[in-house]
Inverse folding.
């Protein structure tokens, strides 16, 4: 019964053609391409350029999903964080493959963690707000930001209990310059002492420039 409900939900998430492509006519959703199950329940979705899919809504994602790894996807729907799976621990979305006409990207206060690559953003982008997440580093180079961009916020504050009172602190974020150029003044973050340095000097994990949720 539960497996049927999960298949029903996944069919609501994807367009009919996308669901047909990924399912390959399999009734068991655990056999779908890029789907990982545990004890008959979906726990992971991993779709990349080999499986570029079109989505209708994310509201029907099964609540058992722990990891979502997406790149090169055609996400043209609103991501309502309140309806994301309650057991989700990793949400990875590749910023290099955002829709080419995107104007505003706001993923505020969602505990996303990792490295953000700014080298291939849509030229239509006017606002980036990934503030109050757990970003470790922002990677850029000379004139990598779109001309119409007004702001790019990656700053994070948190509260720490000290002497029976809460103290607001800034979480440091490193800026990595791929070509040694200074950070663009539009980028807002709480810089570390070693705020600007080349990728060769970085000890951070640097895989595909994604926002990683672990």
């Amino acid at each position: 019964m539960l497996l049927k409900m999960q298949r029903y939900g996944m069919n609501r998430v994807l367009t009919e053609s996308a669901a047909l492509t990924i399912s390959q006519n399999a009734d068991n959703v655990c056999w779908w391409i890029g789907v990982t199950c545990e004890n008959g329940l979906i726990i992971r979705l991993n779709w990349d350029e080999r499986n570029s899919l079109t989505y209708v809504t994310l509201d029907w994602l099964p609540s058992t999903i722990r990891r979502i790894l997406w790149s090169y996807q055609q996400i043209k729907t609103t991501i309502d964080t309140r309806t994301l799976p309650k057991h989700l621990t990793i949400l990875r979305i590749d910023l290099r493959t955002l829709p080419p006409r995107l104007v505003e990207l706001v993923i505020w206060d969602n505990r996303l963690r990792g490295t953000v690559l700014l080298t291939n953003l849509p030229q239509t982008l006017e606002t980036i707000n990934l503030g109050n997440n757990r970003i470790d580093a922002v990677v850029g180079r000379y004139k990598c930001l779109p001309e119409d961009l007004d702001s790019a916020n990656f700053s994070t504050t948190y509260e720490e209990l000290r002497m029976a009172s809460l103290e607001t602190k800034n979480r440091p974020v490193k800026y990595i310059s791929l070509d040694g150029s200074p950070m663009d003044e539009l980028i807002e973050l709480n810089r570390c002492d070693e705020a600007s340095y080349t990728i060769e000097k970085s000890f951070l994990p640097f895989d595909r420039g994604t926002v990683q949720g672990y």
Q: What stands out?
A: The helical segments are 2-13, 16-23. The chain has two domains: 1-88, 95-208. Residues 193-214 have pLDDT under 50 and may be disordered.
